[in-house]
Amino acid sequence: MGTQSLHRLTAVQVRSLPPGKHADGGGLWLWKREDGGGQWVLRVSIHGRRREMGLGSLSEVSLKQAREAAAQQRALVRENKDPIKERQKQRREAAKNLHLLSDVAGDAFESRKAELKGDGLAGRWFSPLELHVLPKLGRMPVSEISQTDIRDALAPIWHAKAETARKALNRLSICMQHAAALGLDVDLQACDKAKALLGKSRHKAENIPAMPWVEVPAFYASLSDGTVTHLALRLLILTGVRSGPLRHLHQTQIQGDVWTIPGEAMKGRKGATSDFRVPLAPEALEIIDQARRHARGGDLFPSTQRGVISDMTMSKLMERRGLKERPHGFRSSLRNWIAETLPSTPHEVAEACLGHVTDSKVVRAYRRTDFLEQRRAVMEAWAGFVAQSR
After folding, report:
1. Domain boundaries, the chain
2. Alpha-carbon distance 327 to 321, whole Å?
3. Residue 320 DSSP SS3
4. Stated pTM of the model
């Protein structure tokens, strides 16, 4: 087949041809429309079957470009390959390598929601990525992200905000593994190599300051004005719970002298799917009765506007008093008090007072108890000690 039989059309003809199908030769056709536009189409036969594939619109692809594309596709046919399937394969491969980190991160987060407290609505899992990684790497295809990219993104916080940087790197590693599971071409060692480039963090972790247990009764007595903040702090001290479940305490969670915290609201109880029961001493029940006067929508500790009091409300009160200790530290106060004044308390019971999960999943499967009554005795003794000065 000569060049002349192949190239039947000219650039001038292409612009002036009437509506209809016009052959350029070699299976290349121009389909002109009534509106003057058109489409380049290539007809080939592969495996005894005729195939038609589009090569682009007349407005975007010139006659010369259409002929070059047709020649490439005919070459595939000579290799006994279906050009349409080959193009689909190329597009799939291109799509794999063009997935952006922001897309992969969102998909990874969605797939892990069921594992996260409250389905991750608080944003604690995603926020390290959202704040420190995605602004710099989010628009990059995951296949192009290297250890140097990760290093440069995390270097500003690696020493100054070590724990946040660690979480960000951990979440990014999960995203890279998720991308690999999707079939994307990624470097699964990039995060480890970035960590090596960043070096050992100079930051030293510090425990949250805790009030010595001997000073707790005096502080408890000073919380006497009956406000939401004072009552919340008193109940926090009496129960030894974290501030999150305390701030979100709803009247429906209290039945008699037991407060049941939903399992998904408890931190550090991975593998423990059941709810957590908190025994309420008479002193705690009295505080709850006082808090009911402030209740709004069933929430015992509402904020002045909407929702519940913030995580900083109780901390700010202690800060204004010039105290270095913070509310979370009362859990340590309680644990130290148990260790020093009730040394015969079994370790499992003492840890259960703080809602800690001990032992392996297998051991817990056989030991089906939350030590409620043993904890009740401990917490009533603690309440008696704490409220002695009131």
Report:
1. 3-85, 101-198, 213-389
2. 13
3. helix
4. 0.55
User: Rounded to whole angstroms, how far apart are CA atoms 128 and 122?
Assistant: 12
Give the strand order in the sheet containing 38-46. 20-25, 28-32, 38-46, 49-57
CA 340 to chain centre: 40
Q: Which CATH architecture has domain 213-389?
A: Orthogonal Bundle (1.10)
Specify whether the CB–CB gap between 66 and 56 falls below 8 A.
yes
- pLDDT tens profile 264-309: 766 544 444 478 999 999 999 999 999 999 999 999 999 988 889 9
Nearest to 231 by CA among 261, 239, 306, 355: 239
If you write DSSP's letter for every residue of 215-249 in order, what string do you get?
GHHHHHHH--S--HHHHHHHHHHHH---HHHHHT-
Task: Give me 101's structure tokens.
Answer: 């980190």
Q: Thinking of the domain 3-85, which architecture would CATH place it in?
A: 2-Layer Sandwich (3.30)
> Which two structure tokens, joined as six digits, stand for 212?
């010595």
Q: Which long-range contacts (CB under 8 A, 24 or more apart) does 314-320 make?
A: 314/229, 314/232, 314/233, 314/236, 314/243, 317/229, 317/230, 317/233
Q: Which residues of 147-170 are buried (b: 16+ CB within 10 A; e: fewer)?
A: bebbbebbeebbeebbebbbbbbe
Burial of 262 (0-12, 13-18, 19+ CB in 10 A): middle
Query: What pLDDT digit, counting tens, does each position of 36-45 carry?
Result: 889 999 999 9
* Correct CATH for 101-198 of 1.10.150.130, 3.50.50.60, 2.60.40.150, 3.30.70.890: 1.10.150.130
Tokens of 150: 């990760």
Give the count of beta carbons closer than 10 Å to the beta carbon of residue 126.
Answer: 19
- Does residue 256 register a pLDDT over 90? yes
